[in-house]
Every structure is written in C-alpha cells, then in structure tokens.
User: What shape does this take?
Amino acid sequence: MAHIKLKYVNAFANPGCKDKRVRYYFRRRGAKAIPLPGLPGSEEFMAAYSAALASIPDHHSEIAVNRTHAGTINALVVAFYRSGEWHALADETKKTRRPIIERFRAQHGDKRVALLRREHVLKMLAAIDNHLRSAVSSRPFAG
Assistant: This one.
C-alpha cells in the first residue's frame, strides 16, 4: 500500500479501543480538528480533505484591502505587513509582534491617521507595552 503524505493530516490509533482502527484528522494549529472519513486517497477522504483545506482562512484575507479604508491605522498595518521590513523579520519575531499589532489595530484601526495629533498618538502608545513600541518604531511611516 502506498503512503500518502498530506499537509495537516494526522493519524491516530486508540490502543484502548477494541477495533484498533486508525482515524485521520485534519489538524491545523489554533483550529479545531476535523475528522476525515475513509482512508487517505479514497474519494470520500479526499473530498473531506479538500473541504478542510478550503476552510483555512488565507492570511492575506485578514488584511484584505476591501475592508481597509485608505488613510486609517488599518491601512498602515496592511502596508507594514506587506513591507520588506515585515518580511525580513524572523518568524519568531513576527509571531511575537503580530498579536500585539492586531490588538492595537482592533482598538484603533478605523481611526484616520490625518486626524491624529501628537497627544493622541502618545496616549495610544502609553496604553500599550514596549513590544509594540519597538515594532512600530522599527519602521517609521511617512504620511
């Protein structure tokens, strides 16, 4: 029998179970496991696998332009995520900074940058921790 290696698919056999049947799950970090019926390669299995793959949100849709209005904090975040500076960061650094940036974005994303005054920015920065300050200060944004 050929061995098929599919991304996000894990096989589990419950040693305490009488039938000793191997069960397959589509498991992606941070998401609920999805049981996959049948055997890998079967029509039933591949249809369920395709559906599970399609359910993965594209990380670019998180920063989709259609929900981002020009001139807002959201637009700055999108620009930063698309920048060479963001892509040059180590994966571990991105992993640390993204949740901080997204929290900041959730609180202030709809604010128009042109309407922000120095005291507004200082007040917003005072409310967050040093990680975000170092994340945003590593790339100055030109208005």
